[in-house]
């Protein structure tokens, strides 16, 4: 049986100066499109999975351009509601060395922010679907968006569809209190929980027990403890935690851990020279969902997800444009970067 | 005595595909800044006039970039209020031949739209000023903006500052009824009224008497009649009307008329191959204000204003980047385009 | 009932210097994709018609990029065969004024040229289709391609699908003799024949009777005669002939005629300032098919088709990126090019 | 016998904003190379003539880049002296419609301006040469440059090499008095004199007799008279005069006349949509020399030269990148600009 | 009381190939503006300090573009003299890994090089100023420039304005002997002396005592000794020395030391991945002046200056476009480069 | 006596996305030219050696553009045969970090692939030549190409011209068996053999004796053994082996060894941050030939060759655009990357 994965959330117009130029140096912006759940859908489409992205976009040409970009990568867009006032925008200035990347959001009043549950018929959308994915950004867009999320989760459960969620806490969108309350209500429908090293603390106040999370192996124990607490509280099937070490805006170490309720599977760690870091977490989610819907063993699953997201850091734009073969080659050990002729 | 001209309104980020590409063909946008009153301020600064632009802009780097662009051309920006959520944006797709240019506005919720009268101290702003200019776009931004305009007009009058207004009716911002009512309240403070061939009808319901405005000389009579009605109703010192003939998106004819309450002064007509048509009307306003603050005779004034705006059509971006010498050369008859070595 | 149009042919990588630069001046090429039947499919998809393009493309990333570009505009690509050695390429240098545009073909040995009838299952492809379109370029690609065309035509007829063909004679691909022979064999399946002023003569040796086709009204009679001869010989339902007057590489006049076996319908003539002339004929085909599948009256049909292709001349790339509303606005008389705000 | 043409003068780095942007709008300049005599050499090399360009350039990489650009088009560069302080630069802002192109020279102190006769061994340079060309710009560079020109002319005459000169008066480089005096001294070595409609008056005070040069046929008589006076005074074999009508920076009419001492041969007149007008006169010189060294009849010669330079106006950069076949096609009457497939 | 800092020197047009392309590979140059003292002024303006830059620039549009670029960043330009022949130019090719960056100067005969003391009225310029800064490049431009520097220094001292100087020895502009003599004459007016590891030796023959300056801690002693000798000889209030370790064109280590006559304050050392190294020293000067006019403690001052210049290495162009908050964040320890959302 | 080096092989059009963009993300390709032997010719021309490149290219403008690019760098092109159907193309996607660069070849049916021995007159081509160079790619193009290579080798030997060959095994062009057989036949004419760490095994089945080539000094022994076996089998004068350690697509270590039949000379090892890795091996060949024709001592020769190719990794495009002075500076120890002012 084919897998069909539906993701739901916001896709934004991303405006970025070329290269390492600063915002106030430029008279050109790169114009691409991206957003947590859209990025996951593109990842999956690139892996050959039937992937559909659901959102609401204005009827004008810029809204259409976002749809066109999704279609280009093979993402199904037929249930995207059209209407509303504007598409969310984010401005991205790429950092280098000690200078961090900078994101300015201009996403308020976007079509998806002002959408209502009436815009989406989940029974129809989930026709034939086997997996549903969203991130913590979507319910953070407002009460309407949270309500739509909840409806989608319920519809998914009713149809026996697996649900994954990347906690993805964004402090500019809501407070920790609000996040904790809303997200807790959604977690009961979630089977696979993805988080980075801070999300569990920010959203649910879950900290690693009896250890100050600082360095080395201690860290591993801390992450295990966080994963276990998440599992214990919400009953997830899987908890995945990404482990980023930010050396500078140019160099990061990147790894992750998968917990299946019994064992903890740690991936290899990659030393990455960064081309574009945005979407790194989403590409991990895309890789993880791919490996889970294809029934990879836990160690293979986490290696695939981390290799996929390692590669994303070398690719411009939010979307991870890599194939299964490319991910498997890296996961299988070839990170030498030798020319493929 | 030096002249100092203050203009007030919105400046937006303008995002445009390169060349003649369509919105959904591109992954780069040209990023420049513009807006009716800002464009006038830049024109005047380029002519050596002390020009100041007043608005409200968000505190972030994109807001700063708009300010930097104004400063680059020598416009004073010190009274620009900082704060609010976002800078207005407009997307511009350049037309060619039979394909019209297309503008998508994304300006709602901008800092200036949500500004209040408390953001501006007009007594301080008008210190040393001799002229104030705004357009019909600004009061159309909302009741707050209209209230600020009114305060500015009153403050200007109280200080003996001349006031000019370009009617600039925008149907997406308000209805004709609302426009007519609000603008009428402002007109009593206005000395110089600028309009295109449709504004007087749209805003004030003023149509040319006993003639169907169609072609040739009849047109001239129609415009005279409209100017006279405007003058009679509001007591303007000058009424200027621009006369555009749109042959296609690539070719326009361009001329204007100035009425000083006694005589009607028609300019030469230019056949223009268009490079960038946006800001054409504003460059006329800038040229007219320049010639009036320098006490040009009416015929010379209208010739300067039309030559200035003719040149604007050959320049990329909203701003008219021409010097007094360049305008005078064209107004004086040299439109041969021979290389200036 | 929805219409579904299938087109079949070659899509090539188009490599073009930017602006008006010559081939040997540049170190960048614009890389887009296009080809007669693919261009028609994109036109139709932009008009909201279900459009599918069928071809064969190599399995590598450049072949995929061609598919992605089609998908971006909503064209169905699921029956595109993958395999073969290469994608056809054409180099395009844009002309200006007296300097003509220049095309260098590098299309030999392309995947579609070396495809066989085994690559396509027309019964499956035509599932639900109502219209099939190809051009004279496809059978000119070689005997295999001609055989596939013939199979497709037969399958279409068997299913009651309308068939249209743009004669599109290309002297670099085959001789007039070969063209005449092969095309005659295909014409019996064709309902709608599209040609420019030279195709009928080049392919079928059909010339206007008793007149030297030169200027003005005489021309009209000549075109009528050619259309009638085509109809009489092959029994087409419609014959459409495009009328291009090449003033220079920058300026063309553009019009067309439609013959329904009874009357001759001449469109308006447009004076076009050219942005990109390549794909002009295909956009006419796309417009004509759209209007015919939507049962436009003949005069309305030819006006729509000509307005659509007039607009194409203002758009970069082979594909015509315009909407029904835009075409109708021009066909309805608004060629003023005034800014659409 | 093969022809070998030597040209001598200055080649400059040309810095130009992209498109129609103004100098103070840009953060990129197009960097190409050009200069009157270098342009002629490139024209000839493109026509398959052995062409050599002689100048002096600094030893650094920018000097080398100028040489590389000449080599790219097949111009021999082996006698270019290396040394001196700098390469001359000119900034070019492209005009459009009523806005003229603008040139800012930054050429003082260039290597060629400060070169001396010791830098060039004309006996060696002229080995095998059959033609020598220079323009009035070169002696205008200073007394040293004028002295080198004189030495070159003498050496050419001594070897029986034909000499051509384009008067090319540049008022920023010298006064009319100085020009008249220096150029008169060089003219005795010149066989073919090229001038535009003003050069003869500026340099030699030669005006059309008994006529105010204004319009139409009168003009023709005026040009004839000027050519005859030039011939009578200096004994030229040929006098060629280019006839430019500047309608605007976007549109020019272009034609020329050739006088062989007996008859006056007027070319066709071309209405040109300008892509890049700089180098237009030089491309005429290149075309004329080509046709004369190939012994074209006078009418054919002037048609070739004018068609060549007509095409130059459609090509970016100083250099005329066209082939003999392209020029002949236009001279032969095909200015339709139809796509060459 | 507000601080106002005046800097004086040359601003040049900087022409650089894009990315890592070499000079003879390109047909585009990035065109920006920069120069030691201009760079310092921009740094300070970005920090909110009233900063004014004084120089002489030609009256033409390229001169104006340099001024516009300064204004864009808020630098006061009203005392820039206009006139002279040309703006200095430098060509910059960016290095990578083992290939060094290369600079070709074309700065002779620039307006500022040929300016005289009559061009500047320092009493007027220094109205309200609290600090004056220049570098060793300016007096190296020639005797006139040195005389202007001296006048400026004397005027500054007479008004109680602090004076800082970055020694900045440039061997292409003058000999060590000449530099030593002229600079010594200026040092008596200088309060704050900035130097890199070689300047003191090149200009004043001051070497570290009894040690071969090679590695590690020894180095620190050497720098201390040089700073002390400078202080002892010229009585500076502060001596700052930058410590660059060039690993390759892509990687440098960067640190500095400040000596206040009593103690030696060493900054943190940053390992920098270089985006653009030019202007690195000037950004240190800008940071140091900022921290001193704001009365930072010595350790905080040197940390701010080094963090500021560390960030400059990640920014394209001569100018350091960073805010006080960004510098403080890095100086305070956050060099992780994590995305700022 | 001057040296003249002739190289023979294929030059291809290289199409590469800008920066690190992937193939299916772009609508622009960088268009440059390159190929093993052409790259060597350009290296040598840049070093001042008379270098000629021989191939066959189609007569059209893209073929001409390849020639123009060679001429630009001073390579003699007069014996390039013109004709055939197409120029080979390769698509290059630049990798970064763990993502490898990817090459898609579209070189079949190229003019040089379909050339025959009749296209080249080696007696004439080798007039005055002292060195002939080819790579294993050329005979791999097909039997015709191998036959031309053989003819060239014989002609070279007959004239006492030294012959060098870079083994350069390409598995997509031929099998190991075929390669081994054809190459063995050519080796008898070869004096200098260049190989990387895998070529000897791939082509001739030569592996390092009694050691698993893994790390450190063992490696050195392995390479020595391979070199000795090559020498013993074919009697080469020199065997050079390049030693690349691929850490990632961004970072490589680079070194080489030269064996003169007596001693083994190992170069320094460079840690390279890669700008463009393609052509790295060819630049080694170019450096080696330069040092051998100039009779460098073996250690100096291998240091020059490795420094040359180290620099190539920092340069965009296939061609190594460096001077002798630049290579010598690095070979002499200055890899600090300090700005050269």
From TrEMBL, chains A, B, C, D, E, F:
Protein name: PfkB domain protein
PANTHER family, A to Z: 2-DEHYDRO-3-DEOXYGLUCONOKINASE_2-DEHYDRO-3-DEOXYGALACTONOKINASE, SUGAR KINASE
Keywords, alphabetical: Kinase, Transferase
Biological source species: Cellulosilyticum lentocellum (strain ATCC 49066 / DSM 5427 / NCIMB 11756 / RHM5)
InterPro entries noted in UniProt: Carb_kinase_PfkB-like (IPR052700), PfkB_dom (IPR011611), Ribokinase-like (IPR029056)
One Pfam family named in its UniProt record: PfkB
CDD domains on file: KdgK (cd01166)
Family: Belongs to the carbohydrate kinase PfkB family.
Domain Carbohydrate kinase PfkB stretches: 3-312
GO molecular function annotation: kinase activity
